[in-house]
């Protein structure tokens, strides 16, 4: 006996990836529904690469009663309106938006990092998926924190345009084409030209000069991993279609050599260590696309602080940063709380 699963926002980048991941991981569902806004009602979407099609249903008329889980990839506005309705109908919501992440009654889950926290879902019948840049980082930090206790993290991100949705990907493509053929370049999604450029600005600015994306990395890491960790972030949008990269500097309470860190990371869940000190001995965003792992390279000691390390972290933001993590949460929820059969 399998689960009845709803994918909300099924026609977007992350929603489509959720369908792919459900199929790839052979998630035990008996029934699957694709739900989106009224604009997509009646259109058809393929379930992974199975050749089977789902007709998209209008969220305004969808009844969540009798469904086990709803994977939301619809943005904060739609989530605010429909997630409480789904939860009240007995359907557990796994939400990819930022809306509920810092709600004290909603667990914020990365299954490799804090699976035990999922039991708190019963308070609201909602579970939050973290920000894409946070998700891959805490997967990398967790096994090191368990051994040497992290005091402080300085992270600079290199985030792909797919983090801004299909519009962001289209804008990079159109601007790149325009530059090559000499057409005018236009900005609609990003504040400045993204093609052949980098933009140190993701989300809105806050009073202290940081952006909301940077704030998310700080507060979400504290909630997921350890509130005592000090973290500062600089988040940058780069002209890459898919795959977020991060340069992470870590200061520990205890001594941890680069070689010991490599051994720890090599054995850690969700991590693929690719770290050869030679040409091509590291992973770039192009190579991580379509993979569920968080790739770690360039592990080295930082001589400027006591007990410091630097690492390079790369992951497919549509996968571990969103769709895969949501499906892993669904798997964890099924194993621990909503057992079938």
Helix content estimate: 25-40%
Give the CA-CA distance, first to last residue.
5 Å
Largest sheet: 6 strands, parallel
According to DSSP, the number of beta strands is: 14
Shape: globular
Number of contiguous helices: 8
Widest beta sheet: strand line-up: 5-2-1-6-7-8
Q: Could you list the spans in which at least 5 consecutive residues all have pLDDT below 50?
A: none
Average pLDDT confidence is 96
Beta percentage is 15-25%
Radius of gyration of CA atoms, rounded to a whole number: 20 Å
Q: Secondary-structure element order, as H and E?
A: EHEEEEEHEEHEHHEEHEHEEH
Q: Which structural class do you get from the secondary structure elements? A: alpha/beta
Per-chain topology:
Elements: E1 3-8, H1 13-24, E2 29-36, E3 44-46, E4 53-55, E5 57-58, E6 69-72, H2 75-88, E7 92-95, E8 126-128, H3 132-148, E9 150-159, H4 166-181, H5 212-224, E10 230-237, E11 244-252, H6 258-267, E12 271-273, H7 285-288, E13 294-301, E14 308-315, H8 319-336
Parallel strand pairs: 1-2, 1-6, 2-5, 6-7, 7-8, 9-10, 12-13
Antiparallel strand pairs: 3-4, 9-11, 11-14, 13-14
Helix pairs in contact: 1-8, 3-5, 3-8
Could you please describe the fold and organization of this structure?
This protein is of the alpha/beta class. The model has no long low-confidence stretch (mean pLDDT 96). It is globular. The protein has a six-stranded parallel β-sheet with strand order 5-2-1-6-7-8, with helices on both faces. A six-stranded mixed β-sheet has the order 10-9-11-14-13-12. The protein contains eight helices and 14 strands.
């Amino acid at each position: 006996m399998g689960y009845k699963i709803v994918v909300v926002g099924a026609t977007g980048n992350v929603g489509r990836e959720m369908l792919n991941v459900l199929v790839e991981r052979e998630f035990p569902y008996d029934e699957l529904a694709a739900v989106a806004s009224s604009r997509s009602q009646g259109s058809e979407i393929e379930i992974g690469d199975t050749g089977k099609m789902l007709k998209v249903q209008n969220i305004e008329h969808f009844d969540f009663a009798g469904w086990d889980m709803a994977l939301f990839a619809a943005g904060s506005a739609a989530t605010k309106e429909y997630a409480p309705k789904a939860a009240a109908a007995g359907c557990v919501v796994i939400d990819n938006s930022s809306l509920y992440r810092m709600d004290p009654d909603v667990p914020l889950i990365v299954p490799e990092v804090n699976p035990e926290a999922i039991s708190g879902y019963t308070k609201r019948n909602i579970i939050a998926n973290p920000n894409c840049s946070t998700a891959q980082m805490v997967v990398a930090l967790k096994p090191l924190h368990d051994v040497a206790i992290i005091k402080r993290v300085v992270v600079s991100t290199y985030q792909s345009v797919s983090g801004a949705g299909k519009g962001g990907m289209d804008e990079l493509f159109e601007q790149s084409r325009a530059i090559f053929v000499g057409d005018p370049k236009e900005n609609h999604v990003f504040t400045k030209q993204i093609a052949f450029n980098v933009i140190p600005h993701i989300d809105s600015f806050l009073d202290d000069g940081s952006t909301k994306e940077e704030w998310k990395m700080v507060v979400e890491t504290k909630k997921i991993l350890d509130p005592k960790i000090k973290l500062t972030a600089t988040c940058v949008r780069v002209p890459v279609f898919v795959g977020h990269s991060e340069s992470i500097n870590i200061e520990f309470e205890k001594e941890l050599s680069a070689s010991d860190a490599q051994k720890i990371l090599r054995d850690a869940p969700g991590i693929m260590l690719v770290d050869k000190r030679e040409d091509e001995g590291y992973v770039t965003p192009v190579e991580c696309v379509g993979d569920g792992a968080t790739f770690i390279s360039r592990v080295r000691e930082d001589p400027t602080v006591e007990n410091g390390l630097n690492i390079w972290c790369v992951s497919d933001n549509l996968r571990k940063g969103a769709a895969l993590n949501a499906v892993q949460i669904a798997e964890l929820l099924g194993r621990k709380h909503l057992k079938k059969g």
